[in-house]
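One-letter codes give the sequence; each number marks local geometry. A record appears below:


***
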Amino acid sequence: MGELDFSNSSTGSAELIGYCDDILVNVLVRLPGKSLLRFRNVSKQWFSLISSPYFSRCLSQSSIFPSAIFLRMRNKLKYHLLPLDTNPVQGPTIRSFNFVDDSAGIRLLQSCNGLLLCCSNNRIGEYNRNYYIYNPTTNQYTTLPKPGNRTPSPNTIFGVILAFDPSKSVHYKVVFVRSSETTSHLYQLEIYSSETHLWSFSSNIPKVKNFGQGVYCGGAIHWIMNNSRCLLCFNVHLERFQEIPLPNILDDWDREPKCRYFGECGGRLHLILTSCKHSTRQFDVYEMKNDYSGWLTKYQVDLNALTSTYPEMTRSHSHPSDWDYHAFRVLAIVVREESKQGPSPSSFIVLHIPGKAITYSFKDKTSTLLHDFAPGCSDIEGCTTFEWDDAYPYVATLAIV
């Protein structure tokens, strides 16, 4: 059989790609998740390829950075969905989750590498509350089974964390922090595995101020501990704990530093701490070292120039030395691939300032409007609505829940 000659064929390249899975995968992983769902109907070959665990792993390796964020509206079961591109969002951005008929409504608890951990919003009858794992790309969900070894009361849930790393496994775990049945001064971990569909008890754990703000990164869940200036890390696979000191922040009043942001991007753990006394126009973004030996200063941020562009950031009733003299909240940190020459132009911080969401480039020191929450409203000086734990990154994934 002679070789195929694609040199003079306008469709030759397309046919070559269609018959070569490696080339096809390299092209498809660059497309939005919604497009991939449609392209599964092109042919049996494409359906099989896009639905395969191999393609899901390839997609997770190319889509490790968020393309949008969900912003929780306080006292409502509604969320803004803001794409993280350079064009301001036009039109409505508000949505609620209705993937399942839950009479109490659906509340978003956590985002982890493309999957969302959600629960019923009912506040009474905690044992009867439903928990869901939802994939917003495929619109598929699953309801977690009730733990068979938990008594209905008086066990209280203090935090629920989803642990999912598609680069390592197609399976996930859900870690519940609950009151201990044996001692009142400790909590207990109860873990659900999507691989075995079983619950199991793990270690006791010291009480932490806010177990609901845990961050999963690098195979471990991280919590900021009370009054100790340490991170408490729980290796989900080994079920072991480790404490890591926080960066040392000078404070003339010897107070605990204020956490302005704690999150993950692209497999990297990031933290922003500021003094409780001094103004926060200038601050450092810390990143955990690969070997967990400590923190490095990833970026040094100076927001002074923003105050002239957005004068509504200034709180006229505050003193310039106050830590909250300029009104802003950090919603997300997006760190792209970088080189020895410094930050990538596409690495940025997402800020909420009065009435708006903006991005601020680490490299160019420029800002871009993402969305105006209050167009035409002038009475917004110093007013912020969202905190860092109201933001949930969205990453496209075809993971099966």
